[in-house]
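Researcher: We're teaching a course module on how sequence relates to structure. For the next exercise, students receive a sequence and then see the predicted structure as tokens, so they can try to spot secondary structure elements on their own. Here is the exercise chain.
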Amino acid sequence: MQYNTQKEKLQMPEYGRGVQDMIAHAASLPDKADRQRCAESIFGIMANMQPQLREQPDYKHRIWDHIAYISGYQLDIDYPCEITRLGDDAEKPKPVPYPMKEIRQRQYGHLIEESLKQLAEMPEGEERDEMLALVANQMKQSLFNWNRDAMDDEKVASDIAHYTQGRVILDLSTFRFAPVQTLPRQDGVSKKKKKK
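Model: And here is the predicted structure for the students to work with:
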């Protein structure tokens, strides 16, 4: 038994190993007329496998380019169009650097910490109160998602004061949190801890 990992690498996986084997067979034929007939049959198969290509004006050219690429440009036939070499000239994109941010409390995440910094800089008023309500409710939801036992209104208030160096105080005597959202399970039953 031979595993796919032991076989030759697929040049274009969207066409599969069967097409790659057919193109390799066509390239191995000694007679050019036989190679031409075989390649034209393979063209028809590939066109049927990728019907979305037919919506593009140059789909025939594209499929012939794919045939040439899969053969490693070793298939010696009279192509009906000029072949464009695929992937050889293309420069691989540079990896995108991942922004590594230090997060003091992982349950809140970077965006909550940034929101609290912005909140500390805002002047007192209605806009700041609205933003405080949004951030406090999100913090409570994050605590609920992270660890339900740690979810506490006083913890949220103390964390807000800690992050803002005491510039923003959440008054628990007047502030009312929004209800915490529980996510439904796949079977439609919400995830709630069973009381023992």
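Model: If you want an answer key for the exercise: Residues 101-180 form one domain. The longest helix spans residues 126-146.
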